[in-house]
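To the wet lab folks,

You asked to see what we're planning to order before we commit. Fair enough. Below is the target structure as tokens, and below that is the sequence we designed to fit it. If anything looks off to you, flag it before the synthesis order goes out.
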């Protein structure tokens, strides 16, 4: 009798479990349509901190509050709500610091564009370049803009339209200088 009782319980349980496992199915295309949107990023990172090295030595360090990577229609990474880039010298010290409220990396070329309240600081010389847009050509290692620029150092203020420098910001060239003001100390 005990043996029959187990069958009465076991058979309905096995049939129910079989029905559950057979009836569950997910169509990946339907799931993708429901969960993705073409304007949404493929990847999102918060409080991003990346260090690029060469032969074990830090070259560039990037901080961003929000980073969004898109694969289509163009492979890019956008940095929203602030971006900070530290450029290191050969001694391993921070040589210059680039900050902005927005940045974008072209995923194919590696070139970087920064916009909105852009500041570029040479730490040792205490000089700051301020503009609205800077472009960093990673291959040629040049940083440039065609927008109005103001460079402030402890002893002078230089302004102009368009400028070029290196990532160390140890020298700068203006395309159209407009003023050079020496400060008395």
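Sequence we intend to order:
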């Amino acid at each position: 009798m005990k043996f029959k009782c187990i069958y009465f319980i076991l058979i309905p349980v096995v049939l129910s479990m079989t029905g559950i496992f057979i009836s569950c199915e997910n169509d990946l295309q339907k799931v993708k349509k429901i969960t993705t949107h073409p304007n949404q990023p493929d990847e999102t990172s918060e409080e991003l901190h990346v260090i690029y090295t060469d032969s074990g030595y830090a070259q560039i360090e990037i901080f961003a509050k929000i980073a969004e990577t898109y694969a289509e229609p163009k492979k890019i990474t956008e940095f929203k709500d602030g971006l900070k880039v530290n450029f290191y010298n050969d001694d391993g010290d921070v040589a210059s610091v680039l900050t902005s409220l927005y940045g974008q990396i072209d995923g194919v070329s590696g070139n970087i564009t920064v916009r909105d309240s852009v500041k570029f600081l040479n730490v040792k010389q205490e000089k700051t370049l301020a503009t609205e847009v800077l472009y960093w050509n990673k291959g040629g290692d040049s940083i440039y803009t065609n927008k109005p620029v103001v460079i402030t150092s402890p002893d002078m203020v230089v302004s102009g339209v368009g400028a070029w420098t290196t990532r160390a910001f140890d020298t700068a060239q203006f395309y159209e200088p407009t003023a050079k003001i020496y400060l008395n100390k």
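Structural context that might help your review: The longest helix spans residues 2-23. The CA atoms of residues 84 and 99 lie 4 Å apart.

Thanks,
Computational group
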